[in-house]
Design goal:
This protein has nine helices and 23 strands. It is of the alpha+beta class. The strands form seven sheets. Strands 13, 16, 19, 20, 21, 22 and 23 form a seven-stranded mixed sheet that branches. Strands 1-8-6-3 form a four-stranded antiparallel sheet, with no helix packed on it. A four-stranded antiparallel sheet has the order 5-4-2-7, with no helix packed on it. Strand 9, helix 1 and strand 10 form a beta-alpha-beta unit. Helix 1 runs parallel beside helix 2, helix 5 crosses helix 6 and helix 5 crosses helix 8. The protein is globular and about 90 Å long.
């Protein structure tokens, strides 16, 4: 007789309590094998593919795509003996060692919770948020008189195309702009400044898709401010959003990464006393070094940007002032000094802010650090950043310069003592050797937890980063 086994939603890591079912990769009647990917889920931190713990035939899918399910709730039933070969009285086969069991196994051991699922079906299919070539729909003229339009029939305005990449990018005004003539013409026609466009092409070249994506993100959108609006903005089925009956508001459920980010930022803002210090820096020599490294054969397989030199500078500053690499343990009333540096890079994505980190970045040479940044970028763009990638960060860089922003006052990543904002690099008049010359200039901002870091320590760290960006040869002295 058939032997049915339930697979319960495991804890995908970091003690998370729920996840959303994004996509099933199997259907009822499909044959599955151990470790075959059966479903993709979205936790508060990342997208995760779950493997099957059983070999057999799918008997039932217990939850639908778009449902939010608590850890420990059954999500699929597998018939592990479809031929009925096993005797009726024989116990169900146990999963092999290291596999998840049907009784609430976990991928990372944090336990399970027996709770009901919170069903939140989506309106329509999931929207593709990361397509780099999607263009905004043309504006729709409002009807002369209010007309009631069913929500399901309302046209959907595409979401801004492409993820906003606050990651490793040479998209600052201070880099050499690489683009083919047709792409340059397209940028002129759209009124786009190429120096502000993040490049995704090989060797740092700006593609047609890069220009279109940047233009779409920059295009203004008209708010729905009248009843019966037939083209409400942000009416995106992929986000679970809905427009109010009068057409004046769009409501989007707070969930997943956005929810976790909000909780973390509120906790950080109201538990750690933030202080921010600023420094304007002449980075002309850094820009020359970046240009040379891009032509060096040792770096031909990795992407070299000003952010790479900034990351290296921060690591050297931490080595010289290790007190900055710490955290505050409120429960134990202790200051914890870290003997390692897991360097975080803040990344803004359509799913919300994530801060993956490069593990043991202090052990890497310049090429290894460049490779780490490249890998982090590729993983984040694909939406595959795991909870482990974001755990145990010790200090963070947020690259606001990719948006053309000069500086900011960043909020600390919870559990860290400092975060460095790296602004846009621009050509500006600057006093150099007693004369006013055109130089590449950027602004740095260091926010820190004043319980752990006083103004002097913050100033020393910020000054050291600035010294290396002003003269990268200083790294040879301190390295």
């Amino acid at each position: 007789m058939p032997t049915f086994e339930q697979f319960k939603l495991p804890d995908a890591g970091e003690g998370l309590t729920e996840a959303e079912i994004v996509q099933w990769h199997v259907a009822v009647g499909d044959e599955v094998t151990v470790n075959q990917t059966i479903v993709e889920i979205e936790t508060a931190k990342s997208l995760v593919e779950l493997p099957s713990p059983y070999t057999g035939v799918v008997a039932e899918l217990l939850v639908a795509e778009g449902d939010t399910v608590e850890v420990g709730v059954p999500i699929i039933v597998v018939d592990t003996d479809p031929s009925g070969a096993a005797s009726a009285g024989a116990p169900a086969a146990e999963p092999a060692a290291g596999e998840a069991s049907g009784s609430g196994a976990v991928l990372v051991g944090y336990g399970v919770a027996e709770q009901a699922s919170a069903r939140r079906p989506r309106r329509g299919a999931a929207a593709a948020l990361s397509g780099p070539t999607a263009e905004p729909a043309p504006p729709v003229v409002a009807p002369a008189a209010p007309v009631a339009v069913p929500a399901a029939a309302a046209p959907v305005r595409p979401a801004p195309s492409g993820p906003i990449r606050a990651l490793v990018s040479a998209a600052t005004a201070g880099r050499t702009v690489l683009a083919k003539p047709p792409v340059r013409k397209l940028a002129r026609d759209l009124g786009v400044e190429l120096a502000s466009v993040p490049a995704t092409g090989p060797g740092g070249i700006i593609t047609r898709e890069d220009v279109l994506a940047y233009s779409a993100r920059s295009e203004p959108r008209t708010l729905a401010t009248y009843a019966g609006d037939d083209s409400p903005w942000l009416n995106d089925a992929g986000t679970g959003s809905s427009v109010t009956p009068d057409g004046r508001q769009t409501r989007v459920p707070v969930k997943s990464v956005r929810k976790r980010t909000a909780e973390a930022m509120v906790q950080s803002a109201f538990t750690a006393p933030h202080v921010t210090e600023f420094h304007t820096v002449d980075v002309t020599k850094t820009m020359k070094l970046v240009a040379k490294l891009r032509e060096d054969r040792e770096f031909k397989d990795v992407r070299v940007t000003p952010l790479l030199i900034t990351a290296r500078a921060l690591l050297l500053a931490v080595r010289r002032h290790p007190d900055i690499n710490a955290s505050w343990d409120e429960a134990a009333q202790e200051i914890v000094y870290k003997h390692y540096v897991n360097l975080g890079i803040a990344a803004a994505t359509p799913r919300g802010l994530v801060v993956p980190n490069i593990k043991d970045a202090h052990r890497l040479d310049l090429k290894g650090l460049a490779q780490g940044l490249s890998d982090l970028t590729a993983t984040a763009r694909a939406g595959r950043t795991t909870p482990a990638d974001m755990s145990d960060g010790t200090i963070t860089i947020t690259n606001v310069g990719v948006f053309g922003i000069d500086t900011g006052t960043p909020i600390l990543n919870p559990g860290e003592a400092a975060i460095l904002a790296f602004g846009a690099i621009r050509e500006q008049p600057w006093v150099h050797k007693g004369k006013i010359k055109k130089r590449w200039v950027t602004q740095l901002a260091l926010s820190f937890d004043h319980r752990l870091v006083d103004g002097a320590l913050g100033a020393y760290v910020l000054s050291d980063v600035a010294k290396i960006l002003e003269d990268p040869a200083q790294a040879l002295v301190w390295g």
